[in-house]
Amino acid sequence: MTQIPFKSGSRLLDSVAFLNDQHGLLLNGHITLNFAQLGMPDEPSAKAALTSMNVFLARKIDGAGRALGCEMEHFYVYAHESCTNHGWHVHELIAVHRGILGEIAGWLSQWVADRYDGLGASPDAVRFRPLGGKTEEMQIALQAKLVLYILKTMAPAITRDRHGQAANVLDLIGVTRRQHSSPLPIRRMTGASQNLCHLRQMKAGFRQPAHWEDLLSGALLSNRLARERSAELRDQLRDLDF
To answer: What does each C-alpha distance from 38 to 32, 90, 98 come to in angstroms?
Structure first.
């Protein structure tokens, strides 16, 4: 049986926190890519498929942004797993402009058809589910639910809670559904887009929350919005002519 190593799961959580804090965005889409249904038997072919999909999506998202007159990036985090019912697959969570959220499923179908037509790939090899949420609170809760879902195979680790008491990290971040993955022919079980990677976090001077409990609470997004409001107020005061 296989589990996501604690360090890998922790880095994925840092990437989500960086997305919320640095970019003011929330994950709002869920892609499931099934390597077994694509006919990918090993790590090199699966890695190539995942890279190809994300390069394709990045180009589509960039093009859509240009058409709308704004800059758009492809933000994502992912985690691999394998189970008896579905075989080896990867869950990828993305953050995209709500105006193009309805385009993602069609783009993914196009990618499968373009790259794997005639190779026996199942049309169900890639699935996409957009996230709703009418309020920011609902969107934060949905993001947390999905992140915890893709981390359900994360290995436990003992740390300290905000009160200094020993606690399991999985309890602190709220993982209630826990299981092991079947053995996987892959070394890196989680990852993120380059714009959310550890190096990009360091260059931006990003500091992870002091407490595990705050990682998915929405506190970082609230801090981001507060900084933006403060900056706007300073600009308004600076423009005042006394």
So the answer is: 12, 12, 28
DSSP letters, 142-200, are HHHHHHHHHTTTBPP-EEE-TTS-EEEHHHHHT-----PBPP-S-S--EEE-GGGSHHH
Q: Residue 211: helix, strand or coil by DSSP?
A: coil
Angle, vertex CA 51, rays to CA 198 and CA 120, nearest 5: 150
Interval 191-239: pLDDT, tens: 999 999 999 999 999 988 888 888 888 777 777 665 655 555 555 556 6
Collapsed DSSP state (helix, strand, coil) of residue 242: coil
Q: CA angle, corner 136, sides to 135 and 139, nearest 5?
A: 90
Instruction: Give percent of the chain above pLDDT 70.
Output: 91
Classify residue 81 as exposed, middle or buried by CB count within 10 Å of its CB (0-12, 13-18, 19+): buried
| Among 83-92, 118-127, 205-214, the least confident range | 118-127
Cα dihedral: 142, 122, 83, 48 (round 10): -80
Question: Taking Cα atoms as reference points, which of 81, 105, 57 lies closest to residue 2?
Answer: 81
The structure's pTM equals 0.90
Angle, helices 6-23 vs 136-150, to 10°: value is 160
Helix, strand or coil, per DSSP, at residue 5: coil
User: What are the Cα distances from residue 120, in Å, to 36, 40, 150, 168?
Assistant: 11, 11, 27, 44
**Which H or E run includes 45?**
helix 43-68
**What is the Cα–Cα distance from 83 to 86, expressed in whole angstroms?**
6
